[in-house]
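Justification of computing resources. Each target in the renewal requires a structure prediction run like the one illustrated here; the chain below, 478 residues long, is used simply to show the kind of job we budget for.
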Amino acid sequence: MKVMIVVSLIVALSGTVLADNGSLDGGFGNSGFTLVPFDQGGQNTDQAFAMALQGDGRIVIAGSAHVAGSSPIAPAGGEMTFQAFAVTRLLADGGIDTGFGLNGRQTVNFDLDGTADQAGAVAIDDQGRILVAGTAQSDENDPLSFWGVARLTPNGALDSGFGPDGRVTFAVDENGLGGFTLLNDLLIQPDGRIVLVGAVLVELEVDQQILAVAARLNPDGSLDTGFADQGIARFSALPGSVPETLAMAVSLTDEGKILVAGSVTVDVSGDSNTDLFVTRLLADGSIDSTFADSGTSRVAIDQGGDGEDFAYAMQRDAAGRILLAGSARSDGLNQDMVAVRLLGDGSPDTTFGPGGTGHVLVAFDLGENLRDEAVDCALDDQGRIYLAGQAARSSGADAGIVRLTPGGLPDPAFGNAGRVHYGLAGISDETGAAIAITRHGQAIIAGSAKVAEPDNQDMLAMRLAGERIFGDRFEQLP
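Resulting structure tokens:
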């Protein structure tokens, strides 16, 4: 009798029982998704590349937007359109948080001599301040750039306690003049220092080389000169050769060591071969030679003949194992999502993937342009693995999400054999650029989508149905 009463009570209080199968959560935004247009510049190209969740459930999304305004290189007395860091914040239910910035949006440019500033990473510190990092173009007529970092207060204003005015820029090339650079990820250490990773092109006597870069800032935005070479570490994943090393993701071990992941490309008999890699740095920025092979673990999937395998994201699980997400060439021109798991020492995890290979490939194969890529990953509290990215069509793409079991197999309870792709009504070319799991077990995906006109692109956020029981969201209270 008591059981019947409890069941009846649950049914009575439930507005909707959400299926944990990859469907969109109709209680979020507009039928499961929210579009955020900045539309401040003539090109109306607004893109999201990174996301962070606040403790209260609000969602911070960062990327770039074209804005119109004054610039050091604008004609005297005039304005121009340029690309700036763009940050928006959503409420937990997907509505735009109008108490943030200007109507829920904030843009930041670095007032250099370029027109293209682009944020690639975002994080929230223990005071609720928002760190946004990317590249700041230093020359309108040349794609040279500095690394740029801005810190916003919880309400979206520039934080005057960071750098001279809430913004800092610095060069990561050896000449200190700005260069061909990328900034792809950041983390905040427990002591408040900020680690940034990316890549820089360097000139050699007879060649060029792309090096991975890790930089560390103090909490006030100044370079931490006790880290590597005056705050900046530049390294190759394959010392002694001339490869291209792109650092895409960063994570911190329990001991305070720094994991840097990405892709490394070398020439093999005249053909390029690209593999995934993880390098571990000591707290002072030097390479930890006790990790894997002299500090670097290199992973080759190499199932497609030319070995184009890329890592774009990294997570560490509760056991200290290292999860990489990216794409791998499976055959011909076909690129599939890939997940790789390493043990804490950098060796392959033979309990992961089909047959204990240490990796798993997942294909959507929606059209002739078969380029499926995972650009971010997340873990839920059950150890399940989410991959987010794009599922390519013959023309355009859908946002593609994969869920794997803790053992690295597609989860049959999620979508179609562990895969879901979303072609949303009224928009096209959706991409998933970032994914995070709420404390209630729901996946939030941030990305971009084209709206109405081919040149009009907006930021996009989606929430997947999770395991919420009560329609009044009573269980979501702290």
